[in-house]
Specification:
This protein has 291 residues and is an alpha+beta fold. The chain has helices spanning 16-26, 31-42, 79-90, 93-100, 108-113, 141-156, 159-164, 169-185, 192-205, 238-242, 256-285, and strands at residues 46-52, 55-60, 68-73, 128-131.
Length: 291
């Protein structure tokens, strides 16, 4: 298991949550031990890494014939803490969508902070570890090697960070679905949402057909008291969520000219997005006198 050390030189941008994890290690004051551990990761001395329950279990080949066994873990959150976290996540659709897509929302710490918690350790001292090597220092070079490789693993699957805090990906997804179902079940029978759903179900049961042409058509007026225009909670746009435009040459490589062209296309889309957003707000705010 070899650490992708080329990522350290900055030639490839790391995911922000991976960078935050690695930044904790860069604060370690024993730089020589830090470098030895990094070399262990680059040279393939880490033989195995397994996530079991709330711990990371690994084996690292050291100077002895028998590999050293080590474990790394964080303080897990309580069931009550996770209940509050899931409640907060269920109220923010963008967070749920990004997590389900395997991406860490940029302001995910706000969710934990709102409940008096932190997803990421504040310091290296909060990362618990144990190694079977005779070195009394902690973290030793074997732990540091595994620590670097965990950055790569978190980049591939950010849910592993949640697992170290006590909940697996399956647990979180199931809890979010259950919470959304509870929220839907809390609607009173005579609420507009319930009546609308019942009407739609009845119409479909009578064999009515859905027309694509009518998808954006809505003839009933909205109650003005229900229309609230507020700034978005985040500066991210749809273009930011979608990421880079995946347009490459037939060879699969993008030249400098193609990269520049893609940036121009993205800039154009960004300008269109802003103009459409402004026009939408203007129309929403319009009154019969200003139409």
């Amino acid at each position: 298991m070899v650490y992708s050390g080329e990522r350290l030189n900055g030639s490839q941008e790391k995911e922000w949550w991976v960078q935050q994890w690695l930044d904790l290690l860069q604060k370690y004051r024993f730089k020589k031990r830090l470098e030895r551990g990094r070399n262990y990761a680059r040279q393939g001395n880490v033989l195995t890494i397994d996530f079991q329950d709330k711990k990371v279990l690994a084996t690292v080949q050291g100077s002895e014939d028998k590999p050293y066994e080590l474990s790394i873990w964080l303080d897990a959150f309580s069931d009550e803490d996770w209940q509050y976290i899931v409640d907060t996540l269920s109220e923010q659709a963008l967070h749920s969508a990004k997590l389900l897509a395997g991406e860490m929302p940029t302001n995910i710490e706000d969710v934990f902070a709102a409940n008096g918690l932190r997803l990421f350790p504040f310091s290296l001292q909060e990362v618990r570890s144990r190694c079977s090597c005779p070195d009394k220092a902690n973290p030793c070079k074997h732990i540091i090697a595994v620590y670097h490789l965990l950055g790569d693993r978190f980049g591939e699957d950010p849910f592993l960070l949640f697992q170290l805090r006590g909940r697996s990906k399956e647990d979180i997804i199931a809890a979010l679905r259950e919470r959304r179902a509870d929220l839907a079940g809390d609607l009173p029978p005579d609420s507009p949402e319930t009546a609308s759903a019942a009407t739609t179900t009845a119409d479909l049961g009578q064999g009515s057909s859905l027309r694509v042409e009518d998808f954006w058509t809505y003839d009933d007026p909205l109650d003005p008291s229900l229309v609230v225009i507020t700034p978005p909670p985040t500066q991210e746009t749809v273009l930011d969520v979608l990421g880079p435009i995946p347009l490459l040459s037939q060879t699969g490589n993008s030249s400098l000219a193609q990269t520049a062209a893609l940036e121009q296309v993205r800039a154009y889309f960004q300008e269109v997005y802003q103009k459409v957003s402004q026009e939408a707000i203007a129309q929403a705010m319009a009154t019969p006198e200003t139409d």
